[in-house]
Amino acid sequence: MGFGYLTLGTVTLKPREGNPKPRMWRYPNDSLVNSMGLPNDGADRTAVNLSKHKEDRAGPVLVSVSGLTIEEFGECCRIMEPLADGIELNISTPNTEGVKIFQDPAVLTQLLDEIAKVRTGSKPAWVKIPPYFNDKERENVLDLVEVCVKKGMDGITAINTKRIQEPRASIGTGGLSGPLIYEDMIRIVADIYNQTAGKIPINACGGISSGINAWRAFEMGASSVQLYTVFIYEGPGIVARLHRELLQLLESSKSDSLNEITGTGLR
After folding, report:
1. Where residue 190 sits, what CATH number does that domain have?
2. For the segment 42-93, what is each residue's pLDDT rounded down to a tens digit?
3. Residue 1 belongs to a domain
4. Which residues are registered as beta bridge partners of 11?
5. Which pTM does this prediction carry?
6. How many angstroms separate the CA atoms of 178 and 199, rounded?
7. Whose CA is closest to 18, among 2, 35, 31, 37?
8. Total of domains in the chain
9. Which of helix, strand or coil describes residue 74?
């Protein structure tokens, strides 16, 4: 289809049913709200599935992992990393009670120390951060980013979904994704790029649905972009269209690669 890599998951150590259904709804402006709660088969069964296809994969596959304790997180990472091309640590899902403890910089520091013990080598590890909407939240998330830089993480995924009230969900809330969070994502990507002076790659995730959307994310400091909601609404054709639009923009800019665009909108 033309994706550069896939992120699978999120996977937890033990199987999870997730939150009761229904747990996903279409919203205006081609957006979605989900209240999934990390349903998955658990690390052991997912490892079996991945091992069957490890040799015939056409491109990189990263695995998103999460847990409710440092030990769960670390064990899940230990099982999944040998079968993946990289790991994304999901500390920011808004639909699973308990994960939020890792949004404390001190606790994240402990988690990353544990992850360092179980990592086998040079495979990249990313951290997926939550969005923020006031000065206090901004300060906290940027502190998390500083922890990631200090501990040698290979990238930041910005952002996870925005928690909103959703009376149809069993837990009363859900995570908003799609174009309705695009401007929040752009704002946060720019903040992270400025905060770190571009020292850590940023994967822009949130509401990207066109080449110009992706281009603007690169200009604000992103090194790659991720798609989810638009893929549901438009199907696999979105990838080829986004590629064509990016190539046209690249040609118009007289740049040789997207790497040359990263951060140029902030200079």
Report:
1. 3.20.20.70
2. 999 999 999 998 788 889 999 999 999 999 999 999 999 999 999 999 999 9
3. no
4. 65
5. 0.96
6. 27
7. 37
8. 1
9. helix
